[in-house]
Structures are given as structure tokens and as C-alpha cells.
Amino acid sequence: MAYRLVYTEFWTDPKVLEEMTPEDRYFYLYLLTNPCTTNCGIYQITRKQMAFEIGHSTESINSLMDRFTNHHKLIMYNTETRELAIKNWGKYNLNKGGKPVLDCLTKELKEVKDKSLIKYVGENVKSEDLRQLYQSFIDMVKSHERDVPRKENDTVTSRGRIVPRQVDDTKASTNGEKQILRIYQGFNDTVTNRERVVPRQGDNTTTNTSTNTDTNTTTITSTKKSSYSGKSNIDVFKHLEKCNFIMSTMLMEKIAADIEIYGHSEVMKAAEISDENSKHSYNYLKGVLENRRRGEVKGGNSKQSIKELEREGLGFSV
Questions:
Q1: 308 or 99, which is more confident?
Q2: In the chain, count of helices (H) and strands (E)?
Q3: Which residues are 86's β-sheet partners?
Q4: How far is Cα 174 from Cα 158, in angstroms, rounded to an integer?
Q5: Domain boundaries of the chain, sorted by first residue
Q6: What is the pLDDT of residues 302-311, one digit of tens each?
Q7: What is d(CA 124, CA 151) in angstroms, rounded to the nearest whole number?
């Protein structure tokens, strides 16, 4: 289950105290915490959905949206794409970086249709690494507009952006992609080639490590195909949310490290086993991973296997 941070300072903020009505405060909390929110602070939502979830009429929502856009100047809403951006989102939710956070933000920012909203949110992000990520997408848009001249059949959006019918974005994305790679470089320094593919008996493939087939050697990755193959870290995080884990920045960093060791499929399977046993702590998940690697957990909620694991006490605290 996803969660959003709202500091207690929200209630002592001068703007909230002096300029907002009780209805404004309630609506602002809704914008910060509703189910459509994303990690990047830009999400798609309709006015009808707001009215349904809050319990207001559509006319009341239109009035509140107008107040927050033109009077409080805290949000920006694109009526064409139905995307809403929160100006101070970075103040509440983007204080910590890390590769898992960057991966998640990169995927979400790529899906934003109105790129001008990225600049609107990015200007108020405090973290230097995360602000550079937002800036890379802004530079990508600028490069695109500079490299693609306007033609007669181009269209102009309500925000004045030129949208060509057919665009070759090869050149446009170059500068932005390079900057994103530079941002990731600092986090990739700790990534090593720890994963190896060890051939099964009977395979003709060879490895560049050693010909010694010591039975005590631990192999981290497997050549066995599974339904989880090709998954990214973001897919694993979403899978853990489906398995009722509460995802935080710290947990995502731990899970990303475990993915490097055990692989995507093992982490996702361990999350399923934990959920089946109604255990949703990281320590329990880690214990499942360790025991599966030792061949002691086959999955499922067998009472006998659970008791054996609890007797061992290996990372199965609540």
C-alpha cells in the first residue's frame, strides 16, 4: 500500500493558517494524498473523480480548482491531458534520493504528457540529484523544440507548446538521456558483476571464472526461466505493494540491494510467500530469501515449514 508524507508543519504554515478556509485545507490534503498521486508530483485525475471521492458537487470542485490555480497558486491543471501538478510536492515527498527513487521518478516523468508541468514541480525540489533529474527532462523538451522547426500542419496546445504531427526524437532525447546517465553514475559505482549464469549439467556452455566445480560454491543466479524474467526494479516494488508491503525509500533501497544478490524473481516470490503467511516486515522477507537460497523454503504456507523456520529464528520477526 502506497503512502504519502504530510509534515505536521502543514498546520502551522502561515499560508494555510491565514489564507485557506477549512474547505481549502481539506481539499489541499486530498490533492496531496489521494489514490491517484504519484512519486513525481504529477498525476492524472478528473474533476468528476475528485467530486465523487470528496463528496462535493462538480461545481464546488471547479471553484476549488480555480482558487488553488489562480489565487493560492499551488497547483497547475491541464484540462486536455487531465494532469495535475502540485507546486510544493518536492517539499513534502522528495527529500531523499537513491537509485530506486531515481528509477521510479524516471519512469513516471517519461509518462507525463504535458512536459511543462515537470518544470513547474521541479523548480521546488530541494534534493540536488532529484532536481537534476527533473531538469534533464526540461532540457530534453527544449532540445526537441530547438531541433524541430514548426510546420504548417503543427498544432498548438492550450499552453502554447508546439506539437508536431511527426517528430524524429532521436536528436531531441540525446542531451536529456546523457544528463540522466550522469545522475545515475554516482549510484552505479557500487554495482558489481556479482551475478553469474552457471550452466546446468549437460550444457555445453562455459564460464570465464573457473573449471573447479566445488559443491560448496553458492550460485546467486539461475538459468531457469520464470514468469518474472525481464522485470525491472520498479516492477518488483509494485509487486511488493500488491503483496501488502508498505514501500518507503529505505525499503526500496534494501530491496534494490537484494535484487542485486538474489535476482528479481526470487525477491518477488519471497514477497508472495510473506504475504501468504501474513508477514509484511523486511526481516521476514529477508529470512525467506536466505532460506530459499539454501533450499529450505519451497513456497506456500505449509505450517510445518513455517514452524521450522521460526525455530531457526532467521529474520522472521514481525
A1: 99
A2: 14, 5
A3: 75
A4: 27
A5: 8-145, 233-294
A6: 444 555 554 4
A7: 34
